[in-house]
Amino acid sequence: MTAAAHLPVTPPAPHLARPLVMQARGLVKRYGHVTAIGGADFELRPGEIMAVIGDNGAGKSSLIKALSGALIPDEGEILLDGQPVHFRTPSDARRAGIETVYQDLAVAPAMTIAENLFLGRELYRGGALGRALKLIDRRRMLTEATEHMKGLQFAIKSMSQPVETLSGGQRQGVAVARAAAFAQHVVIMDEPTAALGVREGNMVLDLIRKVRDRGLPVILISHNMPHVFEIADRIHVHRMGRRAALLNPQKISMADTVSVMTGAIRPEDLSADVLAH
Ligand SMILES: Nc1ncnc2c1ncn2[C@@H]1O[C@H](COP(=O)(O)OP(=O)(O)OP(=O)(O)O)[C@@H](O)[C@H]1O
Asked: If you measure from the C-alpha of residue 249 to the centroid of ligand 1, how many angstroms do you get, rounded to a whole number?
């Protein structure tokens, strides 16, 4: 037996042992003289809500675009379940199981909730011929939409209701529910509560928590600090094109977080206990 076999083995903390769902290393994106992403790192663990915060122009959107295939980085790498991926379009990212909910609601108001849930992924009846003839299986879409919404405890009377009859929060809820239905790996949400009132914003936060609790990790870009602190497991602070700090919202105050974001507190001056691991 070798000496090493006698060494005590300290198992890593359970959350550290979990593999990363998504990781970005050293991402760079330049537009002429402007560096939108300047060597950014990012990581996402299974089943967590990772908030991404940063001042205007910090480069949050650019980072998210790189992770969702809407932008091709000049340098760096993105790993999904530990494997390098090279997204050239948002469809590439969707095919890899990454769904994005954009700030400007991507719902079709005149269509029903069920149709919106299946928008671009309609179910057809009658096999290959039915698909060729575009025989949409409305009944199955309605049943599956109802089941899915029930699973998320989304209280809506009828899935055949046109989305234009819903409140802003409910519409955003439909967009979130659609992302949750099709995402295999990651849901990215860009300011999902920005245009909503207090009650509706809370409803969408609840829905995001349910998505997380069903095991899907969520990346949440938000300027709304109370929302971030209410819902995030970890906070990625983006500043000047890169990750400035990874914070633990259970340990750091909202005021200090904002100071890190604006540069009033240098990340290296933070005490170790407020950093997220
Ligand atoms: N297509 C582009 N062409 C030129 N410059 C760009 C482009 N996209 C982003 N930038 C620049 O890159 C920097 C980061 O922009 P980005 O939109 O990613 O920041 P942000 O943190 O999302 O800002 P905001 O919160 O205001 O949306 C800014 O200086 C921006 O002007």
From this structure: 26
Question: Does 207 share its domain with 252?
Answer: yes
The number of folded domains in the chain is 2
**Which atom of ligand 1 has the smallest separation from the CA of 35?**
12
CA of 68 to the centre of ligand 1 (A): 16
**161, 183, 198: which is the final residue of a domain?**
161
Owning domain of residue 146: 111-161
Kindly state if the Cβ of 33 falls inside 6 Å of ligand 1. no
ipTM score of complex: 0.96
Of the candidates 255, 204, 258, the residue with the CA atom closest to the CA atom of residue 231: 204
Question: Structure pTM?
Answer: 0.86
Q: Is residue 66 assigned to a domain?
A: yes
